[in-house]
Design goal:
By secondary structure, the chain is α+β, with helices and mostly antiparallel strands. The protein contains four helices and three strands; from the N terminus they run αβααββα. α1 packs across α4 and α2 crosses α3. It starts with a helix and ends with a helix.
Length: about 110
């Protein structure tokens, strides 16, 4: 992944993870694996885990510890009402920005 892609991804990764959690609950490694399957091969697990800690602290997710077949219990994250509201704001902002960028790309019309 190039530097420009990495920088853009930093600004949108929270919204991407919230969108994943809007579809279904997941634990950190599942989220990382899904992102890699979607072509974000360079995303480090540590980046996703740090983001999950932040969105948990901000109250966007509910966390349930579930037993794991291998090792300690896993933290499974579920998007809650506050997280859904934040995700809706993310999509509104994304729409605004992408429309303006597309206008610039087409020559400013």
């Amino acid at each position: 992944m190039g530097k420009q892609m990495t920088e853009m991804l930093k600004g949108t990764l929270e919204g991407i993870v919230l969108a994943i959690l809007a579809v279904r609950s997941a634990y950190g490694y599942e989220i990382t694996a899904w992102l890699r399957d979607q072509g974000f091969a360079d995303i480090a697990e540590g980046t996703v885990y740090a983001l999950l800690v932040r969105i948990e602290q901000r109250g966007f997710v509910d966390v349930e510890k579930v037993p794991s077949e291998k090792g300690p219990p896993r933290k499974v994250y579920s998007l809650n009402t506050q997280g859904r509201d934040h995700l809706e704001e993310f999509w509104r902002t994304w729409s605004f920005l992408s429309e303006r960028l597309e206008q610039l790309h087409r020559g400013g019309n």
